[in-house]
Each structure stands twice: as C-alpha cells, then as structure tokens.
Amino acid sequence: MVDSRQSDLQKVHSRKLQKAEARDARVAETRAWILAAIRQIPRGKVSTYGAIAKAAGKPRGARLVARVLSRSFGLPWHRVLGAGGGIKVSPDYALDQRLRLQAEGVGFRGRRVDMARYEFKFPKRSASKTPVVKSAARQKPKRKA
C-alpha cells in the first residue's frame, strides 16, 4: 500500500516536473523571439511593443515585450514605443529616450514620434517559422456527451 502510494506520488511529481520544463522551454523560446525582433529595429527607426509582440509570434503580448525589455541589457530600448508613437517609459527615462531618438534622426510631432515616417515594418514571416505555443492551461476541458 505504501509503495503504491509512493509510486503514485512519484508519477505526479514527474508529470509536474515535465510540465515545468516544457513551460520553461516555451518561455525561453518566446524571450529569444522577442529579443531577436527588438534587435532587428535599425538605427533611425522605431517600433511599438505590440508590433514587436506580433513579429515574435505573440500578437497579444505587448506587456510581455515590456517585461523582457526591462530585464535585458544591451538592447536598443529607446527604439521601442507605445501605441501611436508615445513614449511609455518612466518619467526618469523619458527625456533620455527622446534625446537618443532625436540623435538618431527620428522626428517628433509634439510628444509622439511621427510613426508614418519612422516606424519599422517587420517583414512577414512564413507560417512555418511562427512559433506555435499551446498552453495546457488555456485549453478548454472536453465535455462528456
């Protein structure tokens, strides 16, 4: 009885460990796609958090892009803006971001970047290169008939 209970616990723990490892792999892959998209933005061009998320295969992941950007170093963070070209970083860094963009030749219309002129358009990717990540938590349970 004790051995079967212990065996059941080991199976459950093993499944949880496998799920955690799969989740960690998906997170690392998504982070890598986001970092690659940010690095594609050339000097003198800008992009939005949402456009980067879409280019990385996470069309609703603008907040994820912000989180990855805040935890990474050596990236052109100043080239990433909010929707419509607005500067969305904290006020401590907003002036720094604007000055860096102006030094690269990016023009502003008031407080926003002229997105029609300076927005970087990511190239369309084929469907085979787009990462497909399905989370077990998001799937609806199947109903019994």
Q: Which SSEs are present, and which pair or pack?
A:
Elements: H1 2-39, E1 47-48, H2 49-55, H3 62-70, E2 80-81, H4 91-103, E3 108-109, E4 112-113, H5 115-118
Parallel strand pairs: 1-2
Antiparallel strand pairs: 3-4
Q: What can you tell me about this protein's structure?
A:
This protein has one domain: Winged helix-like DNA-binding domain superfamily/Winged helix DNA-binding domain (Arc Repressor Mutant, subunit A). The protein has a two-stranded parallel ribbon with strand order 1-2. With 145 residues, it is mostly helical. The longest helix has 38 residues, at 2-39. The radius of gyration is 21 Å and the shape is elongated. It has helices at residues 2-39, 49-55, 62-70, 91-103, 115-118, and strands spanning 47-48, 80-81, 108-109, 112-113. The protein has five helices and four strands. A hairpin with a 2-residue loop joins strand 3 and strand 4 (112-113).
Which terms would index this structure?
single chain; 145 residues; mainly alpha; Arc Repressor Mutant, subunit A; two-stranded parallel ribbon; two-stranded antiparallel sheet; 5 helices; 4 strands; 49% helix; 6% strand; elongated
Summary of the model, kept short:
The protein is mostly helical and 145 residues long. The chain has 5 helices and 4 strands, in the order αβααβαββα.
Q: Would you count the extended β strands for me?
A: 4
- The overall average pLDDT, rounded, is 84
| C-alpha end-to-end distance | 35 Å
Radius of gyration: 21 Å
- Share of residues in helices: 40-55%
Number of domains: 1
| Strand neighbour order, sheet with most strands | 1-2
Find the structural class using helix and strand composition.
mainly alpha
Tally of DSSP helical segments: 5
Would you identify the CATH architecture?
Orthogonal Bundle
Uncertain residue ranges:
132-138
By CATH, the topology is Arc Repressor Mutant, subunit A
Inertia-based shape: elongated
- H/E order of the elements? HEHHEHEEH
Strand fraction band? 5-15%
* The first-level CATH class name: Mainly Alpha
Largest beta-sheet characterization: 2 strands, parallel
